[in-house]
Amino acid sequence: MPPSPPPHRPAPPPPHHPEREPRTAIEGPETLADGTAVLRLRVRAVPENGKANAAVIVLVAKALGLPKSAVALVAGDTARLKTLHLDGDPEDLAARVERLWGR
Q1: Which residue ranges traverse the bilayer (predicted)?
Q2: Residue 30 in domain
Q3: 29 beta partners
Q4: Fewer CB within 10 Å, N- or C-terminus of the chain?
Q5: Domains in the chain: how many in total?
Q6: How far is 23 from 27, CA to CA, in rounded Å?
Q7: Which domain holds residue 75?
Q8: pLDDT tens profile 10-61
């Protein structure tokens, strides 16, 4: 009788990276405990060497239809809460943000 094949072993699960988000997306508006309105984003990029900050800029620029050069990080370089500056006509930018905000 021929030898039986080795038992089937499932593939090991992929490595878990708790600091990495599964996707890059805009989740929508959110109100913080202090009443501040913010836009919740998730980025897949790791928070090292500015990669996550760059991903935030690319995501916001794309969502608003702006060039990356029109979006700048002005506060929160190493924090979860970021403040961005949008360069352009204030009325046009307000309309774009309102559409993104879902209002």
Answers
A1: none
A2: yes
A3: 39
A4: N
A5: 1
A6: 11
A7: 25-101
A8: 666 665 555 555 688 888 888 999 999 898 999 988 888 999 999 999 999 9
